[in-house]
């Protein structure tokens, strides 16, 4: 057997009688979890002391104990990878059909992806589109440490995760916009897409089905030195503001789903001293990395203390939660699988626990008390 041919065992479907039964909706929320700064620093030190792997990737997955062995994530749909590069080191070329959010938490360096060079420093964030080959470099004089968030567990659960490394990752791909046989009249449907019902339904021919409209997805860098001054302005919103003081790092390719990748948003938040958020909930999971200040979170009635350098699964899907800062300003990066849920029309969100639940992206959302202008 080879990559294109394999043997399958004889099998048959089961028929499960669900007559009169209610659909299963007893979801088991993963427990909130804090990976302490000390734990992360110890793992960074361990990775740095290893002999250089052949592919240069000194990495460890940060895995929740509830994760299935074949879909190791920190949340059901979010994988978090800790990566270390010593000065002068680089990784072998790599590509996969997952998308990524990258966050430098120590040192500096650059990444070459899709023909572009992205130079990054501490607390910079950048995205990786799917299937673009990339290589990381540490051209600085200090240890480089990165957190990478990807939708790999979703693809692994669907048994469609594909990854390539080294020379295979650099295999030639068709030029942008090029379609083989595009000028062959025998391969074109003369009718195009046309209406078939009074309520807007259309019929689409195969030629359009296999050549959908291309949305250009490119790597984008969000440098902390430029994000922080804008974020700091939000402190002026004051104690009476009922929203969260944050900016989303927006990739226009994600359109109405408001993401940095099609699966995730990434937000930078400032929490002035002694700010307590209102409790709220949403079906998307949230992972916070706190890199300045300290505070606590209350998740489903349980209190969790955190400080700078801690990584936290802070909001399992549909768990009521809120966050509070202590005496210092808090800065944090939050990665959440909201865009994927918006596209699936599954993003239930309740901003006020006494108010309505909304399907964000399909129904009217919520507003804050922030003055216009």
- CATH-assigned homologous superfamily of the largest domain: Jelly Rolls
Count every beta strand, where a strand is a DSSP E run of 2 or more residues.
25
Please trace the helix and strand order, writing H or E for each element.
EHEEEEEEEEEHEEEHEHEEEEEEEEEHEE
Instruction: Return the domain count.
Output: 2
Mind telling me the C-alpha Rg?
23 Å
Would you tell me the structural class of the helices and strands?
mainly beta
Classify the helix fraction into a percent range.
10-25%
* Name of the level-1 CATH class of the largest domain: Mainly Beta
CATH overall fold name of the largest domain: Jelly Rolls
Beta content comes to: 25-35%
Q: Architecture of the largest domain, CATH level 2?
A: Sandwich
Helical stretch tally? 5
Oligomer: single chain
Low-confidence stretches: none
Distance between the termini: 65 Å
How confident overall, as mean pLDDT? 93
Q: Describe the largest sheet.
A: 6 strands, antiparallel
Spatial ordering of strands, largest sheet: 1-21-18-23-16-15
Shape: globular
In short:
This protein has 373 residues and is mainly beta.
């Amino acid at each position: 057997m080879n990559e294109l041919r394999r043997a399958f065992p004889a099998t048959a479907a089961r028929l499960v009688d669900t007559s009169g039964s209610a659909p299963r909706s007893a979801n088991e929320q993963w427990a909130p979890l804090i990976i302490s700064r000390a734990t992360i620093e110890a793992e960074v030190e361990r990775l740095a002391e290893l002999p250089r792997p052949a592919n240069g990737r000194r990495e460890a997955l940060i895995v929740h104990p509830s994760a299935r062995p074949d879909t190791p994530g920190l949340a059901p749909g979010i994988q978090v990878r800790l990566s270390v590069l010593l000065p002068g080191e680089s990784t072998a070329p790599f590509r996969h059909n997952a998308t990524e959010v990258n966050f430098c938490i120590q040192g500096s360096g650059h990444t070459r992806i899709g023909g572009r060079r992205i130079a990054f420093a501490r607390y910079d964030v950048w995205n990786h589109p799917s299937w673009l080959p990339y290589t990381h470099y540490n051209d600085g004089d200090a240890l480089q440490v990165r957190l990478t968030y990807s939708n790999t567990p979703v693809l692994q659960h669907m048994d469609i995760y594909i990854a390539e490394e080294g020379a295979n990752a650099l295999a030639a791909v068709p030029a942008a916009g090029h379609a083989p046989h595009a000028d062959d009249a025998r391969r074109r449907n003369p009718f195009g897409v046309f209406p078939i019902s009074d309520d807007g339904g259309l019929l689409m021919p195969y030629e359009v089905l296999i050549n959908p409209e291309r949305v250009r997805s490119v790597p984008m860098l969000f440098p902390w030195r430029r994000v922080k001054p804008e974020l700091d302005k939000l402190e002026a919103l004051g104690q009476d503001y009922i929203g969260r003081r944050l900016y989303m790092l927006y990739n226009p390719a994600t359109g109405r789903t408001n993401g940095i990748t099609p699966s995730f948003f990434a937000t930078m938040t400032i929490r002035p001293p002694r700010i307590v958020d209102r409790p709220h909930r949403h079906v998307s999971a949230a992972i916070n990395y706190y890199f300045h200040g300290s505070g606590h979170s209350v998740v489903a009635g349980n209190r969790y203390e955190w400080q700078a350098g801690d990584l936290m699964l802070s909001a399992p899907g549909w768990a009521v939660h809120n966050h509070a800062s202590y005496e210092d300003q808090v800065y944090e990066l939050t990665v959440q699988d909201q865009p994927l849920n918006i596209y699936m029309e599954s993003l239930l969100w309740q901003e006020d626990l006494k108010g309505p639940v909304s399907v964000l992206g399909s129904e009217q959302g919520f507003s804050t008390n922030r003055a216009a202008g």
